């Protein structure tokens, strides 16, 4: 399937520099593109490839200034990365124009489950009693949907997902393979020399337009709901404990862990392998650097923190610079002490 530069520019509202009739039939990375492919340049780290790429069309930002002539036809847009994402989404919709519908063999669907129009249930999936699945949602093979689970419309449950009873999944949600939604929270009471399990009676609520990465674990609440608010995006291998709240349009990178009952604000960015203790609040717009350990509440919106224990980003960088110089500082202190002792001895 071929597309012209003019068709692409119309879709992404871009301005063409070069031949509007140039065609592409593939999408590639700028560093290894070939004739007939489309790529993009958003990070100046890769700008040298713009002048050597064999791609036929390249998306670039409107404000990018060329250093020398280029071979490809250029399409200038406000944000090349976002425009490229739009193209990928459109291409995916085109190639998926005949979506899967219906119930495949070797799957089980309870007699009182409600499947709305256009639902797909893949082979070896198990749909429990009183489940409700909204229109055009897809449950891919090998998934388990527990009792009383509600799944909204146009939601995709990839192969091997497990959703425990009573959980609520919104519209346009994507949950990737291996994710477990609604497993028991880590709740135990120490009594008479042993840990007794506290029943976990709540659920997990995932609002609209959320994406959950592969092999994430989101625990059900002890009482009430563990809540993932609309637009949040979770990378792979993330642990969300019981009664946690994740704010709207918050993003969390791989291997992060959030302990029980912590409340994460809207538009927060959490780096990979960061850890957050329980029962604290993280203010809206906070940026938490990778491998940070957050042990105290973040009260001010838009704060950037790093380190373990984590503290304000610029102060942490200054401290790291001082720490790096400690050996030489110690040597200078010892030299000053020696010189001072020599002066005192001469008196």
Tags for this entry?
alpha/beta, Udp-n-acetylmuramoylalanyl-d-glutamate--2,6- Diaminopimelate Ligase, Chain: A, domain 1, UDP N-Acetylglucosamine Acyltransferase, domain 1, 4 helices, ten-stranded parallel β-sheet, 347 residues, flat
Shape: flat
Which oligomeric state applies? Answer: single chain
Distance between the termini: 93 Å
Major sheet size, sense and barrel closure:
12 strands, mixed
Give the mean pLDDT: 95
Number of discrete domains: 3
Helix content: 10-25%
CATH topology of the largest domain: UDP N-Acetylglucosamine Acyltransferase, domain 1
Cα gyration radius (Å) = 27 Å
Q: Tell me, what is the CATH class of the largest domain?
A: Mainly Beta
CATH architecture of the largest domain: 3 Solenoid
- Class from secondary-structure proportions: alpha/beta
Count of discrete alpha- or pi-helical segments spanning 4 or more residues: 4
Annotation, overall tally of beta strands:
40
The side-by-side strand order for the widest beta sheet comes to: 8-11-14-17-20-25-28-31-34-37-39-40
Low-pLDDT parts are: none
Q: Which superfamily, in CATH terms, is the homologous superfamily of the largest domain?
A: Hexapeptide repeat proteins
β-sheet strand percentage: 25-35%
